[in-house]
Amino acid sequence: DRSDSASRDGGVDSARWRYSAPVPNVTIADVARLAEVSLGTVSRVMNHNPTVRPATRKAVLAAIAELGYRPNMNARNLRSQRTRAVGLLVTDLTQALVPQAIRGVEMALHPHGYAVLVGDAHSDPAVERESFNSLVDRRVDGLIWFPASRRAEVEEMVAEAGIPVVLFGQTSPSATVPTVMVDEHPAFDAMAADLAALGHRRFGFIGAGPTVRGRLRRLETALGRAGLTRDPRFEVTVPNRDDCYAVVQAMLRRDPRPTALLATPHDMVPPTVRAIRDEGLRIGQDISVIGFGDTEWAMALDTTLSVISVDYTTHARDAATILLQHIDGIATAPRVIRHQSTYVRRGSVGPAPVDA
Question: How far apart, in whole angstroms, are the C-alpha atoms of residue 204 and residue 216?
């Protein structure tokens, strides 16, 4: 097998992936001819066989994208006893980072002919269990899951489901479930050191969702390494972002008030910014703000937002990629993939006010 220019210049990757309109009557032979490989190689690529060389795989995927090839799913499903559908269960479908996750999952699954069924847990473990069971009942071949439930409950549900499941958005690996995790410790350390060097001593924290406890622990560890301590007076968790504005406003009216404020998840930032603005304070001058996760609007604010962030599209794409391998029973499929988040300082972080 040989690769062509598509493989030499990178082929179909995360930066160039796109849908192509299907061309009528395109066959697997057309794909093989364009990629200059055998029919068997095309079949192995479509079934994500690990024996295919990366350059060859990229050439085949490029040919599939260019031709808009779509295999006969009904025939393939009957032969394989599969539905060619994968479930994606997220904590809250309205969160700003979810579209990035959906894009990443689609990037991994679309070339292999899989459809994605999305479930929404509404940040409620009871609703999450219903959504999980609903996806399993629809006979999805596997599930990608950003859980809101506790780890023990998650592992129990996966064991009962009897299908391959991959967790993502986690900060530690599961003992029994393949996990694509995010290591936030280096980003927390960089943030704490930066804020300490800028003279900040009073740190506020406003959070919601299943990540809050872990992030408070990581904040405490990072502050300790920077020679600082947490201040429980300025740490608040809320059921959802609807309560964020009032809580932040009350925090800002305390004397003293925090000089730096961390808001998690990303959707907590808009009400936080509104509360600061309505109190007549200047972000980056009177108070510094750091959000978790990055979106285009974070860069579009008058004062650009400092963030602790990870490439969420790549994060979800990798989760879908290893799920496909587990669906196929590939013994060498990874059990854990680690991504590292980074601290990005922008205009919303500045020196602590002089009176602090």
Answer: 11
